[in-house]
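Fold it.
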Amino acid sequence: LLSGDVDDTHQVKSTLQVTGIGAQSGASVNESADGQVITNASGSLSKMIDPSTPTSSLVAQGNTITVGSYKFEAVNDAYSISQLTFNLAGGYPAIQTLKLMDGSSQVGTSLNSANEVTFNLATPIHVLANSSKTIDLEATLGTIGTYAGATGSDIKATLTGLIERDSQGTAEVIKGLSIPSNSQYAYRSVPTISTLPLPSGILTVGTKTLQKFSIAASSANPVSWSKIAFTVDKTTSAQLDGCSTAGCTNVKLYDGSTEIPGVMVASANFGSTDKTGTITFVPNTEQQIAASQTKTYELKGLVSGKVTSGEYIMTRIANPSSYAASAKAFANVGALIYADVSTAGTVSAGDVRKTAVDSYAATNDSTTAGTITLTEFANDVPTTIFTSNGSTMSSDVAEWTVTSVAGDETDVTAIVLTHDDGAVVTMTGGAYKNGETLTVTRTAGGYAANTMVATGNSDLGLALTPGVAPTASIVWSDVSAQSHSISTGDWTNDALVNNLPFDTQTLSGSGSN
């Protein structure tokens, strides 16, 4: 029986001393043996995230998922845990119920209704001395969409506190912990994209399948997509005929055997010697995959140039994005929507108009006037005549104010037209002399929807409000918004999409020159 003050530096060791005389030999024995050293040490219970915690992923509504696995490690004493508190931050509306699991045994449950949840355990969790216990926090996801959990809800749990008792029954309330799980993002439905074998891996002249893949929707709800970007690498001499920055008409995407109407935009001249870049496909209308269904797609191109040994064309769908909150599918200016494939933040050549856009043209009655460029515009400029009067211009429409921004006493070389409602047009490059007439003509819907912006078009330079990042290799939706369309905020990028990035699919040349 030990008594007195004992701290972590004190030790106890016993020594066995044996003396005696042999019954037959009469020999004396005097031996000793050291016993075990016993060191007094305080107990502790460590708390940490367990490596078995799932990595970040996309999850579909209605499923039960493991949010996080939490490890408790007891040293020098046994412990029991009677309460655990977790913070769920903003993702809690997407969670229907929470369960604490000790292996296959449920030890606690909660109907979730707040961002912080506390489990008071009728039967404490026991952690034996010098051992560990891993407890899983499971969530059953509720409905995602209007009046329910937000699309892309971050399902993440941070262990913030607990009540623990040592083997003597001494309780300690632990607060201020911050032990987070990984994020999992909840959607009404999620896509799974898979590569499929090419019909042929041989590079030959003619129409060839460059990429073959499938997109599957979750079991209960559909998914849609509105853009796919393919990364292309090729040799200098292998070419994709008719596919350049000016237009890419000989590369097409098929749903089974049916061509999908849309616009292909190339970032490089694949019909020439350019070796790497992207081909972005923007369909005329979003493409939907029904719940539990899978669609198979083939990207086909017209191969030309050299196809001998050493030549190749490789394609893949990359995975460049980080997770971002859902947004509308594409960038916009006012009511106009653009697929901003150039990532410039303004309308530029190669972008795709997803809505019809008014076009504008300016003419001057002088044969000496220079080229007139519309560098900015608004969507309600009428056909208007502006007459030069020395260094100023006047309009035949009262709502428009004309300001000369460059010129001298006889020539106006740059003009800003401002409408009462704030619409602005800037024109440069002309030399509008005294008495000459400048006519700006608007053609309503002059640029049709699903057309590509080209050099010289009057909508170049418009500042865009971003939608899903233009760099995304796929823009997809869980179709969760009310009155869903490409303008609703239920679209996102390729981050964490199942099976991305793809393995590269290759067409290889054969034979000699």
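The chain is about 0% helix and 50% strand.
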